[in-house]
Amino acid sequence: MAVSFPGGDLADRLAGYLDGLNNRHGLEEGVVEGNVVRVVVAPESVPQVLATAREQLKVLHLSFITVVDWEGSFELTYELMDLRGGTVRVKTVIEGTEPVIGSVTNVYPTANWHEREAYDMFGVAFRGHPDLRRTYMWQDHFDHHPLLKSFDISTKRTFEGLR
Amino acid sequence: MLSEERRNETVALDGTASGRLARPDIRSEFGLETMDMNMGPQHPAMHGLLRLILELDGETVMRCDPVMGYLHRSQEKIAENRMYPAVVPMTDRLDYFANIHNEHGYVLAVEDVLDAEIPPRAEYIRVLMSELMRLASHIPSIGFLMLELGAFTPILYAFRERERIQNFLEAITGARMMFHYFRIGGVKADLPPGILEEISEYLDGLEGRFQTDTVDLVTGSEIYVARTKDVGKMTPEQALDMGVTGPPLRGTGVDFDIRRDYPYSVYPELDFDVVTDDAGDVAASYRVRIGEVWQSIRIIRQVIEKMPEGPVMADLGRRLRPREGDGFGRVESPRGEFAVHVVSDGSDSAYRVHYRDPSFCNMQLLQEVVPGHYLPDIMPILGMIDPVSGGWDK
Amino acid sequence: MEFLNFLNQEPFRFLLAFGVVLFLTLNLAAILVMGERKVAGYIQLRYGPNRVGPRGLLQPLADIIKLFTKENISPGKADLWIFLGAPIAMFIPVAAVWLVIPFAPGAVVADINVAILFFVAVTSIGALGVIMAGYGSRSNFSLLGALRGAAQMISYEVPLILSLLGVVMLTGSLSLVDVVNAQGGGFWNWYVVLQFPMFIVFYISALAETKRVPFDLPEGESEIVGGYMIEYSGMTWGLIQAAEFAGMGLMSGISVTLFLGGWQPPLEFLDLGQFNWVWFGIKTALIMFTFQWIRWSLPRLRMDQLMDLGWKVMVPLTLVWLVITAAAMLVF
């Protein structure tokens, strides 16, 4: 089998990931929490940070991309896994209501559909994405992004503020 | 889609189906045209509501573009607008063929953000349920593959087993499909008396029946071998690039299983093997599935043996108000890695819930693997992914 | 009963017999659908149809009533004459071949001396019906099914015809009556003993000709959803189905006639005289059952594998066996 997995002690490996990312990029924040390396980076450097993780540190698997709409800013979480217990969680915050960020499809091809989904649900534009279409919603005549907090629905089922 | 260079790299593999594609210059020289074909969403072999836009050169598929969204219910938006416990029944509707794993992923994520402690008996019951559900999903998926290859009978043999497992699930949870059994902090109720002995008895019979009715009937068939060998072939690098997890990934030889590598619940205390295969084609992924059925039976036997006594529900208070922050839950569902990311803002409903569904992510390989195959090969490749409509559409 | 003798004279004899054969063919299709569902049921651990009539025996009647009362829908862009002509073009050849099959001693509608040639010629018209159906529907799925069907039926015609030649060589006649007469005197005289490989090739080719699993690529319900018959509904669909099932019955009848001794009883003392059609019926039913058994057990081949099997395995096999047969006839 051609794919090689990282070996050795998990704590050492996670420290290695953090060092590797720290040496090459300016991280806004970088800590090891349990089995997770949590780093916060500026949105411009996300593709480079992920490229370092993929090519130099051999973190092979992109699990998912979560976008959170904080009403005024967007928080993106890239969850990377080295398939042997270690996780690298790259977070970034994009200010503004029309988020644009570089695509990571040429680093992790699997990001293709995750970015399409993020575009569909939040309107996050991924610069350099080869095929940025909507995944779930209608391709045309529909210019809403349903998971934005400003997209209101009428059936809220929480009791916050009632009692 | 991959960038052009990367595509050329992967296409250059020896023996892939892409070699069958006619060269474009030949096509233009003879004035040949391709045929666009729309497969689905109303199609008996599309695992629900998948639509494939195909470009055909004779029977050879040149381009395959999956279109999703025909079963989209915006589960993530619903989850944002309900209180934490009320989302659990909604997760049942995601991957409706292996619901327990969705519930498990979600409750793990919420318990992560709550920092909750789960009683050991509840953990063991959760593992028992997960593995029963895995049996109930893997055995019919072998039948589904045969159905898509044109044999109608194995699916009914497989569903007989699923039906019996569902009887156990019904006895434990009270429902046949949409269980709502896992609760944040434990499980809904304790096991009914005597169920463990009955499950153990059933597994004794299942071992024999699975070998004769499914393994021998399916893998012994020459036509099955001819139809699945070297179909949907991919290398480990390709599979990892496309974010494939679960049996298709293990079928390429990548030794990765969430249960072992990112352990959750009480899996570290249990003894099981991660089944892998080297071929990387449809047949390999089915050998992996068959191996996993044996492993699941092994796990259930251990769980029955080790089942501790005690409460099944932790006391987390009546209103769940987690701390602000992120919660992550990740389980190995029968189709691959099911992960949930819950973002809490301190109120009693999640600020954001994100599901990473294996059906959605594994389906990316359709775009890469299908071109070059014949039209009937799409069905075994879909069977290799074994996607579920509710899963990829959320 | 003397006054009925006129019925034994042409054209009345022919008309009467033709009516009987047509009646048999149509009924055969209905009964086979019923049989297929029952066989499928028992293979799949269930009962099959058991609501209409005693033990579900009236199910074919209910099916036919349903089909007759359904509206016949055709696609808006369909080539209507071709679309509506296709089921007829499929059904007529299947019904016509029954005219040359001997059911019992002397009970054959037309004892022509080129019956085997007639059978080969008329069944190959069936491919025309498939192409008409697929082309006339103007649908991608139908077109794919029709092209598959045409390629498959024309390819498998070759081993089918070649496998008949051994029997023709042994008999020295193209008449089916002669073929059956030559197989009398016990089951060891049946051509299946001397021509066993040819029987296998004929059987497999017959499966392919009638588009049964594992060769049901033109239908391929899990990939092209019914293939050439995807746009049909109501009785046009019913007629296509009837043609398929009657074709299955026909192929069973032909293989019984050629290789399993036709109406000849397996042992001399079991001769029933005029009632030897019972033997013909029993053997045909057995062959039909094996068709259904295979139908509910095996998955489908792919087009390239199907062609490989036809051209690379069966045609060489028949050619080799023809040489062996000829050499053996020269020696013995």
**Helix amount of chain B, in percent?**
40-55%
| Class computed from helices, strands and strand pairing of chain B | mainly alpha
Give the number of DSSP strands of chain A. Answer: 7
Unreliable segments of 5+ consecutive residues of chain B? 9-16
C-alpha termini separation of chain B: 22 Å
User: Which whole number gives the mean pLDDT of chain B?
Assistant: 84
Task: List the helices and strands of chain A in order.
Answer: HEEHEEEEHE
What's the quick description here?
Chain A has helices spanning 10-24, 46-56, 111-122, and strands at residues 29-33, 36-41, 61-69, 73-81, 87-95, 100-102, 125-127. With 163 residues, chain A is an alpha/beta fold.
Layout of secondary structure:
The complex is a heterotrimer of chains A (163), B (394) and C (332).
Chain A: H1 10-24, E1 29-33, E2 36-41, H2 46-56, E3 61-69, E4 73-81, E5 87-95, E6 100-102, H3 111-122, E7 125-127
Parallel strand pairs in A: 2-5, 6-7
Antiparallel strand pairs in A: 1-2, 3-4, 4-5
Chain B: H1 4-11, H2 24-29, E1 35-39, E2 51-57, E3 60-67, H3 75-80, H4 84-91, H5 99-114, H6 120-149, H7 153-173, E4 182-183, E5 186-187, H8 195-219, H9 222-228, H10 236-241, H11 247-251, H12 258-261, H13 282-306, E6 325-333, E7 336-344, E8 352-356, H14 358-362, H15 364-369, H16 378-385, H17 389-393
Helix pairs in contact in B: 4-5, 5-6, 6-7, 6-13, 6-16, 7-8, 8-13, 13-16
Chain C: H1 12-43, H2 59-69, H3 80-97, H4 115-123, H5 126-137, H6 140-171, H7 176-181, H8 191-194, H9 196-209, H10 234-259, H11 277-295, H12 303-331
Helix pairs in contact in C: 1-2, 1-10, 2-10, 3-4, 3-5, 3-10, 5-6, 6-9, 6-12, 9-10, 9-12, 10-11
Overview of the molecule:
The complex is a heterotrimer of chains A (163), B (394) and C (332). Chain A is 23% helix and 27% strand. Chain A has 163 residues and is an alpha/beta fold. In chain A, strands 1-2-5-4-3 form a five-stranded mixed β-sheet, with helices on one face. In chain A, strand 6 (100-102), helix 3 and strand 7 (125-127) form a beta-alpha-beta unit. Chain B is mainly alpha-helical and 394 residues long. Mean pLDDT of chain B is 84; it is low at 9-16. With 332 residues, chain C is mostly helical. Chain C has one domain (14-331). Chain C contains twelve helices and no strands. Chain C has helices at 12-43, 59-69, 80-97, 115-123, 126-137, 140-171, 176-181, 191-194, 196-209, 234-259, 277-295, 303-331. Classes of the chains: A alpha/beta (163), B mainly alpha (394), C mainly alpha (332). Chains in contact: A-B, B-C. At the B-C interface, strand 1, helix 6, helix 7 and helix 9 of B face helix 6 and helix 12 of C.
